[in-house]
Amino acid sequence: MSSTLILTVIALYFVLLISISFITSKGAKNSTFYSGDRNSKWYLVAYGMIGASLSGVTFISVPGEVDSLGFSYMQMVIGYLIGYAIIAFVLMPLYYRLNVTSIYAYLGERFGNTAHKTGAAFFIISRILGASIRLFLVADILQFFVFKDMGVSFYVTVFITLVLIYLYTYRGGIKTIVWTDTLQTTFMLGALGISIYLISQQFGAAQSWEHLEGIGAMDWFVSEDGNAKNYWLKYILAGMFITLGMTGLDQDMMQKNLTCKNIKEAQKNMMSFSVILFFSNLLFLVLGGMLFLYIQESPELLEVFNAMEADKRNDRLFPLIALKGELGTGLGITFLLGLIAAAYSSADSALTSLTTSVSLDLFRIDRLEENKSQRYRKIIQLCITLLIFITICLANIYKEQNVLRTLFVMASYTYGPLLGLFFFGILSKRKVNATALLIICISIPTALIVLMNHSKDIFGDFLIGSELLGINGLLCYSALYVASLFSKQN
């Protein structure tokens, strides 16, 4: 693909996004930015959430994981379904009953101002890191395959991307995001389907299926060793806890759900979304199997692939085949649109939710008069944009091995206290001293980081994987309960 064609595709895509933003933000008030006037259609929210949930990490990293994990990732996806059901029928009724815009207001209602700000702070840290890693992955891919040959700096690529995201979200906020996410989901799933179709055409249905069977397409539960990270029970529990933390207790994901008219529509949105997401993840693994089949039959591409850095090789498999393979310009354009959509559907909603949480949870600017509140909100959004830019720049200096694993490890530490706090509040009626609550939420994750660095010495062959988030949440819950026994408020 020529540089001119690539830049034209990207430019037209952003023109489309900004046009949608212009239409959806007409007559928008400051409160519209946060709540979308609670008038979103549940099916639009459900469909759009697919793009935000999958993100560039799924689009790039999940197909590459097939090489090392086969289809065992589906064990975690089964856990996702359990987590989404708990969100729909336990957490969401709570949020709607309290009529909150920021879900961390519940912690303020239940435990007081310290808990409110602590919960918001953990989300802000989690989402800035998560959004930065997701966007870094896509920017790194675009830089390696597209902009490097044009002489464009990685930092310029990231900066322009963030400026464009800021431009189409700063007015309409979540109301705009609900509509742009539907567009971005369409491009992402379109790229997925077209890629699978084109590669399968190269080999025929019989050979393609034989290859998928050979790498375990029907064998999701591959380990009976309870010590292994991919032991089925660990993966299912990990998927459930990751969903509860990274969706149910995450302002980014829940803010879209809270734009639905009522709890019934929000629940329909959540359950239909979970089913679509289940099959989308399965198709991304099928795509991964097809990509490895294709590259094994393409000696020139295989040579380029094997020459790449080992820790980035699998993440660059899909873009290598789409942009450098012989499957046609159509696949290259579709891939680019899908990749950009995957990145921006996650980054734009992250920017909006972070702005909401900082504005409402930390600074309470909603108490100010309209013009002043709107001015401060735009300044906060600009500051968060710059902070994400700085974080991505740091990520470029210190590159981790695998983005998908890195994201889940980070989530295990930062979402664990939120899991403990929320479910302690829901499952008990006890109170906790504000100082004790803050100490627990900071000390438990810190202790776990130290513990995991010496896990081999402590646990031997027993390996702890992504279920660490649940362990973190359980420890926080237990510590909060013990602290509540000594609280004078009970």
From TrEMBL:
Subcellular location(s) per record: Cell membrane
Keywords: Cell membrane, Ion transport, Membrane, Sodium, Sodium transport, Transmembrane, Transmembrane helix, Transport
A biological process from GO: sodium ion transport
Transport listed as a keyword: yes
Membrane topology listed for this record: Multi-pass membrane protein
Gene Ontology terms, MF aspect: symporter activity
Chain segments annotated as transmembrane: 6-23, 44-62, 77-98, 119-146, 152-170, 182-200, 231-249, 270-295, 333-358, 379-398, 404-427, 434-452, 464-486
Any one GO CC term of the record: plasma membrane
Protein family according to the UniProt entry: Belongs to the sodium:solute symporter (SSF) (TC 2.A.21) family.
Protein name stated in the entry: Transporter, SSS family
Species: Lishizhenia tianjinensis
